[in-house]
Each structure stands twice: as structure tokens, then as C-alpha cells.
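ingest -> validate -> predict -> emit
validate: passed (alphabet ok, no gaps, 267 aa)
predict: started
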Amino acid sequence: MNGPNNSFLGLSGQVAVVTGAGSGIGRAIALGLATHGARVAVLDRSSEGAEQTVAEIARGGGQSVAVACDVSARASVVAAAARVASAFGPAEVLVNNAGILRGGPLATLSDEDWDASISVNLGGCFLCSQVFGNQMLAQKKGTMVHIASIASYQATAGAGSYSVSKAAIAMLSQQIAVEWGKQGIRSNVVNPGMTRTPLTQARFDQPGNTERMELAIPAGRIARPQDIAEAVLFLASERSAYISGQELNVDGGFSRMLMSLLPRGDY
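emit:
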């Protein structure tokens, strides 16, 4: 895990916390941080998934610790923060990645599905930002990266409360950037486009879906978790030291395709 790029990003030795790191994008982020020398706290609701990520980091020679955590429960987040501080010290990097997808039309969306999305996606982001943020405030330094979605600014029929919860994360990040900036804390958002993960795999399993999606993406392919992780590493690193309160779309150009998808005449 100790390679020539460690000094370039300035992440070596940093205490980095990644939520939802038991699989998918979160795992890719945790692996990327460890590759660049960070000591990574792997938080996930699934202890098994967290342990698998830790084992993979260990095979590469990195340092990490698995911490079972329900980001929607304050007591669980507080306990996780204490565990991380005991293992590595106070958090210096926080990546709020944990999230769920509860789709459905608004006309019939249940209270349970609405509350779950808001509680995990938005509430979890707030709780982790506050609890780990207080560790950063005490040190007067820290970096936060929140994983939202291109669905946070593009309304998607049938997305239920997912888009709403992700949109709110963008404003929470701006609040953090404004309120805590003078205490040395930066906060930014990464908006992934269509990415193949365990959470989204069923969508790609439907015949023809992948091909149709790729036609709408200028880059010509579905994102890999590693594509998202690379953007997170940049925003977590010293290379982005003067960037805060911003959003970075990582979607292969898809969000710029609206006019190109309309019928057009010769001109």
C-alpha cells in the first residue's frame, strides 16, 4: 500500500472514516484511501461486509479497522466514533457514503419508505458529520466528502424519496463548508452517475438496459466504483485544499446530454 503516489495526495497517515464501506462504492473508496497510506475506519451496517473490506486492505499491506455502525442511530455513530478514536485517533477525513434506495411513485409511497430514505441518506450524513465533525473541530482540521447522486438535481420519476434525500445532502454540505470553514474544515459533494454496484445491479440485469444507458452517456460506459473513488480521493486530499462547498459530477458527461437526446433537424 506504500507507493510513490502517497506523498502527492498527502493522505499518508491520515485517519479516514468511510461509511457504507462494506461493498460497492464505499469499498472502492476505502481501498483507494488505504492505497495512498490512510488508516481507514470501515463503517458498515453489515459486519461481514466491513470485515471483507478490511481483509482486502490487509492483503495490500494497509491499515484499517472494521466498525459495525447504523448511521441512522446516534448511539451507534457515537460508539463508532469512540472506536475509531481508540484505534487510530480523531477523524481527519470523513466520507459519507452509506445510503439506501427505496423507490416508488409518490402517489403510493409509504411513510416507512419515505422515513427510511430520509433517516439513512440524509440523517446518517448529518449524524456522522456532526459526531466526527466535532473531532475535527477540536483539531481545527478535517475534510468531508459526501456521496449524493446526479438524481439530487435531476428529478427521476419513481425514485420515491431518494432524489429528495440526496438533494438535501448537497445543502448540508454547503452549511458545513460555511459554518466550519474558518475552523479548517472543508466539505464537498460527489454526484455519481449510473454506477454498477450491488445496490444497482438488478437494473443492469434487465435485458437491454445497459446498452440503452451506455448510448446516453458520452463516455460510452457505465461507471465503475473505482471511477467514483478517484474523485473522492482528490477531494479528500491536499490537492483540493482550496475547494469547499462544491459538487463534482462523476457521470461520464451524462448530465450534459439533455439537448442531444431531443429529436433534431438538419442544421
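Residues 1-5 have pLDDT under 50 and may be disordered.
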